[in-house]
Prior knowledge:
By secondary structure, the chain is an alpha/beta fold. Helices cover 28% and strands 28% of the residues.
Amino acid sequence: MRDPRDWVNLLSATGALLDGHFLLSSGRHSTRYVQCARALEHPENATAMGRALAQRVDGPVDRVVAPPLGGLLIGYEVARHLKVPFSFPERDSTGKLALRRGFEFHSGERICLIEDVITTGRTTIETIHLIEQLGAIPTALGAIVDRSAEHGVNGLPIRSLLRLEIPTFEPEACPACTSGISLTKPGSRAMTQEDRP
């Protein structure tokens, strides 16, 4: 297995480690952001990360599931290396995660949930609830980067390639806001007028 510094170097070399002023999906602010898609746009990186993460997953598992959009590429690669099916939920018209495209979970199926980055675990928890509602069992959790404080979600330990401690701030206590640095919202959820300081 690769040294964690190798993954930091890879993320840095591909522009996946960003510095600035970022609005996270939790509503908190950060001066650093990890955009794994920049590393995963190179298939050889996705293959290497997927292989390494698959080796860290607590098994056995019957299926890999990843929420959109960030987890899709790495989730697929982990499933490929574990030689199990891969599925993903999507947001329905109400904004809730749901299975579509004919995907089904079997009762008692052991699910490995894969994310690109876990910070607060909000989307992870939502995906876990969906898996349980559909009769399957979330048994493993993995991520390229674990930014969480607990290093686990709903009792599942996060198996990651890398742990990064990157402070987050409430908007009123954010040093970047105080410094007047322009706020951006990376990731797949667009910034609304209410998000702006």
